[in-house]
Give the backbone structure.
Amino acid sequence: MFRSGVKDLRGWSGRAARFHYNRSREIINEVVHSFLNIYGPDELVQGFAEPFFTDFVITAAGLDETSADSTLYMGSMLKEVISPRDGAAVLGGRFATRFRIPNELPEVAKLFGFSETMVERLLYCSRMVAKTDSVALQDGFDLYFHMMILSSSGVWTVIQQSLNPYTMAVRRYHWFSGRVKSFVDEPHTGIVSDEIRQRVLDMTAKASSESRRASLEVLERDVSKLQRLHMFGRLTNQTTLDDEGKSVADFLRPMERINWTLVYRLGEQQPKSYEELLAVKQVGRGIIRLLAFGVYMMYGVKPSLRDPAYPPSQYTARYDESYFLWRLQQLVDAIKSSTLAPELKRYSLHRLGEVFGEGEPVSA
C-alpha cells in the first residue's frame, strides 16, 4: 500500500536555510549520478517528464518542505550538478534565467554533436512549450519557470511552473519529447496543481479540436464579421443566447486590446495549421481568445473549458499502479546504490516512505 501526494510544510528560513540547501544539493547530486550510472541519461530525462517522479526526487531531497519553491530549488540544484559529460544537460530556470536557453543550447549542442537543424528544432520546441502553456492554455496562471532537461541523444523534457497572482497558488506543467506529436493536441504528460479552476480556456484539449479547425476558417473567411462581433458583442439577427450560452460567451470574450492589423494579415497569410498560427510571434492570448469567442458565437462550437490540471492526490488514479511503483523503485535503487552517507540514505528513504508509502519499495 502507498499514499500519494506531497507534504505541504513551512519553508526554510533563517540560519537553517544554508544547511538544508547544502544537504538537499548533496542528496540530489549523489542520487542523480547514481541514477545515471544505473539507468542512463535518457531514462532520467523521461523520468522527470512524469509529475510524480519529479515529486519523488523533491521529496527524497527534503525539498517538499519548501512548498511551491521546491521545483525552483530542484531545478537550480540539477543545473549545478549535471553537466554534459554526464550525457545530459539542464537549461533555463526561473524568472529571467528561463530566457537564456537560446544562449545555453548552442554550447551544449557542440558537446553533444548536434547539427544546426537539431538545435533549431530544440529551440522551436522550447519556444512552443512556453507559448502553448501561456497562450493556448489560458488558466489564469503566469509562467515564471521554464527548464529543459536534455540528453545527448536528443531526448528532452520541459518542466514549467506558473503562479496565480491573485491566490498565489502554483501549478507545474510537464512535457516529454516522446509524447509530443503536436504542440496543440493533448501534448502534456501532466499538469499538477492544488488549485483547480472552474473554467479555463484549453485550446490544446481534444475537445477543442473543432474549435481549432474553425478558428482557421474564421481567419480565412470572416475577419470583418469577427471584428463587428468583437465590437458589438453579437451579430445582427443572432438568436438570443440562453443563460449558459451567455455565460460561456462572456467568459470567452477577450478583454485584451486586439491588434486588428495583425488579424487581417493572418487572414491573408492563412496559417496552414493551428500550431502554425500559435507560432506567429505576435499572436498572444487576446487573438487566441478572440478566435475561440468568434467560433462559438458564429458557429456554436465551444472549446474545452475544463481545467486539465489535477492535484497530486490523484496520481495513483491517473497512472498504472505498477508503473508508479516501478518509478519509485528506480529512485530507491539509485539512493541505495549512491555514495551518500548512511544517515542521508536513511533520511531520503524515510522521506519517500513518509510521503508516498510505507511498504517494501522504500525500506532501507
